[in-house]
From TrEMBL:
Source species, domain of life: Bacteria
Domain spans labelled HTH araC/xylS-type: 172-268
Name under which the protein is recorded: AraC family transcriptional regulator
Entry-linked PANTHER family: HTH-TYPE TRANSCRIPTIONAL ACTIVATOR RHAS-RELATED (PTHR46796)
UniProt KW keywords: DNA-binding, Transcription, Transcription regulation
GO molecular function: DNA-binding transcription factor activity; sequence-specific DNA binding
Entry keyword annotation includes Ion transport: no
InterPro entries: AraC_XylS_family_regulators (IPR050204), ExsA-like_N (IPR054015), HTH_AraC (IPR018060)
Pfam families assigned to the protein according to its UniProt record, in alphabetical order: ExsA_N (PF22200), HTH_18 (PF12833)
């Protein structure tokens, strides 16, 4: 059976698949609140990876790179609901409720948790929209988003330091960030934004730190890791080339041969 990913209303996305599926890298510019209805999601991010189990709520912070693997349950279903909490909506909510934050969130970075009774009921209340038995008007859709914000803050008031932090990303340590994220296959503009820089500033600072252009460094870094995995971990390229950011095997093999002057089988 085919997988499906539907935009139910403006900020609600429903995903349903019937076999294990490896997702592509995605950049999330906005926060989103997700609920694992069925199956599991393994999410890879800068700090490592997490498993989002069935009946788990996850709050994903904005400006992150994430790669996923989606696993159906034993019954054969994978279902996930995601509610986008965009900047405009959050700013309006903060203005109406006189919320202002001047410090950053210092709590649990993973931000996934068993839902309380209210959050669980909230996601179940979205079923009529997902099943197309009811259509959400713009006003009703807005109310459902606001309800999600209310319930999040009720479950943990400290989440206001995440949701209502509208400060611009500051320029972070470029070497540390790129060392942790080089395997994500995204445009340089995304790397620039995530490090708090314009694309021109990113390229300029990159040259100062690494003494070479970003694209060349990223490619070399991926190939060096590939060499290590083949030579010392005895792994096959078919098992990891996507994880290192290569789009296809032929691209990987030709790049490897060009850099090392040998084939992967000759060093294995």
């Amino acid at each position: 059976m085919e997988s499906s990913r539907e935009m139910i209303f403006d900020k609600l996305v429903y995903s349903c698949i019937y076999e294990t599926q490896r997702g592509t890298e995605e950049f999330y510019p906005d926060h989103f609140l997700g609920f694992q209805l069925a199956g599991e999601t393994q999410a890879f991010h800068e700090q490592g990876s997490i498993i989002i189990k069935e009946n788990t709520v996850v709050l994903v912070r904005k400006n992150q790179l994430i790669r996923t693997i989606k696993y159906p349950s034993k019954s054969g279903n994978y279902k996930f609901i995601a509610i986008t909490l965009d900047k405009t909506t959050l700013q309006q909510y903060a203005l109406e409720n006189k919320i202002a934050v001047k410090e950053r969130y210092n709590g649990n970075q993973k931000l996934f948790f068993e839902p309380n009774e209210f959050l669980h009921s909230y996601f179940l209340s979205l079923a009529p929209y997902i099943n197309k038995t009811k259509q959400a008007t713009p006003k009703l859709a807005d109310l459902k988003i606001r309800e999600a914000i209310e319930l999040l803050l009720d479950s943990n008031p400290d989440f206001k330091y995440i949701l209502f932090d509208f400060s611009k990303p500051h320029a972070i340590d470029l070497e540390e960030f790129m060392t942790n994220n080089y395997m994500f296959n995204v445009p340089l503009e995304t790397f620039a934004k995530l490090t708090g820089r314009s694309i021109s500033a990113f390229k300029r600072d990159f040259a100062k730190v690494f003494n070479c252009p970003p694209k060349q460094w990223i490619k070399d870094k991926r190939l060096e890791e590939a060499y290590h995995l083949i030579k010392y971990k005895k792994q096959k390229p078919t098992h990891f080339y996507l994880d290192l950011g290569f789009e296809n095997l032929s691209h990987f093999y030709s790049s490897f041969k060009l850099k090392y002057g040998t084939t992967t089988s000759e060093i294995a």
